[in-house]
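task queued by scheduler; priority normal; single chain, no ligands, no partner chains; default sampling; output format set to structure tokens
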Amino acid sequence: MNQYLALIVDDEPDIRELLDVTLGRMNIETRAAENLAQAYALLAVGHTFHLCITDMRLPDGSGVDLVEHIQRHHPNLPVAVITAHGNMELAISTLKAGAFDFVSKPLDLHVLRNLVTKALKLSAPAPDPSQDPTAQGYPGERRSRHVLLGDSAPMQAIRATIAKLARSQAPVYISGESGTGKELIARLIHDKGPRADAAFVPVNCGAIPEHLMESEFFGHKKGSFTGANSDKDGLFQAAHGGTLFLDEVADLPLHMQVKLLRVIQEKAVRPVGAQKEMPVDVRILSATHKNLAALVKDSAFREDLFYRINVIELHAPSLRERAQDIPQLAEHVLQRLCKQGQQAGTPPLTLSAAAIDMLARYPFPGNVRELENILERAITLCEGNTIQSTDLHLPQQQPFIEGVAATAVTERGMDNSSAPLSLDPYLGNIEKDTIMKALEQTHYNKTAAAKLLGITFRALRYRLKKLGVE
């Protein structure tokens, strides 16, 4: 007896036969329907289907109707939709409705088999809670070493959405401020989905030099340009079978947006210097802290690409939107930082009630990333085993900062439109020089140097680590 059962819905006998033969060779039993009415009847009988493949155009409705029906009544059943070649609008509509993925006519059997293999991973037996207390319990969910902390309503909603998105191959656009954990969300979508065994490839689109972008994304052939001494795979090839996370996608120049759009539509890349395109199987997740819709309106980002990558949008809430999670996050970050720099026998640090209360009331414009920086600084300045509110040195309110910046700019004879000033490099250099002088005076005895500086040995060790001094 075959392990899996698939429902095939298509009014063309040749397509039904082709799918039946192809899936049969994969040890998958099939049931066939010519229209929506027959499909609904088969679903109602009580068969335990593990996969549904449906044509978009059916005599009594559309594939989207079937997708929506299955989403309501059989939410754990992945549905793949067959669409006409090049009709991305219809394909996107099926993904928005909840389809697992789509495949275009004429059917490429290699692409079809890959799709079926991934879809069946979602129908794997559910985790056994008695054997694994962390198991979530819905079919196909994977465990991840990454954790999204927080019990607030926004975080509970995010986790539920991640679980749904992990069951799809739809492109997802993750919006939100800097430091809100957009890459972590992307990793969780990957880790909990059928591509978890393949690569997750993150790339910061703003960090790649513009003249190298095409080579970095699509690869190149030997001799295609000066310095191309050998063939090189690009990021798409590295992510083949897995997920490509395009961070700060708004920073892509327009000429790369055009090329990216073609790759998404054709599911193929052409390396620099190559004559033919090569197929790639990659799920695209993207993110930016900028307002992508506003950039589209200003013609700084292509509208057609925006709708391709923004099939589903997921908003990463700021720390201000989930302030009740701050104490839990602060304790977690503190434990991690202490573990990284802790010496044997050194007691762990804790946060005082006053420090926790002060953190909970701070607006965190830099979100979780700023919380990490504040706690790292507090560890350095803390004299005992408890971080007090005075050790946090939280930034002053914004009007005060703006006043200082404006005064400093005026003194330098610059207008207020100049780049914002920062004291960090200046103060860092002073701190480094002072520490180095103390080390030289004590012949690099760190304990004696710490005493000379009037700080604890642990504080000196953290300062040395932060400044990159061996």
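post-processing summary
- Confidence is low (pLDDT under 50) at residues 126-140, 397-423.
- Residues 153-315 form a domain with the Rossmann fold fold (CATH 3.40.50.300).
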